[in-house]
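Q: What structure does this chain adopt?
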Amino acid sequence: MKQEIQLFENQPIRSGWDPNLDEWLFSIVDAVAVLTDSVDPQAYWRKLKQRLIQEGNETVTNCHRLRMRAKDGKLRITDVATINQLLRIIQSIPSKKAEPFKVWLANIGSERIEEAQNPELTIERAMKEYHALGYSEEWINARLQSIQFRKELTDEWKRSGIENDLEYAILTNLMSKEWSDMSIQEYKRFKGLQKENLRTT
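A:
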């Protein structure tokens, strides 16, 4: 799953596009932090979740859990929700920001449709997000170039008949061996990584 940082009023909301569900999944605790200004959004969400479960709220029981990068840089299991699930959870949070947040979620959904029709919009949005997160112009340009290169490469592999994940993994491993003399797993160990994606470090 492709994970991204979405920004609501300059506050980060971790999210991921699930191609199987064909939907965005959002970190619930990040949404809680934005809507409540709580000093401990994790505790706020735990109490809210417990109350909703006791009330028999099926939205909470059907929420997904994903590994997402926390502030300390580590990947941690996080409760996530689709746009519809998050809208239902928002209804249980008294907040002046609830309505603007609902509009923001609707815009995120429509942006994804627009980006599918016009990929350049994806690049423009990524640049804005990287700038907002404080990355340098040099880092952003290098990152976007690597994304473009990888897309061109995978498109070429598709044209050559490469279709499943295993074949992609084998080719990616061969490329890693060529330029670093190490496999992907060997290079991750060399950099001291575990679950992290090499392209995001």
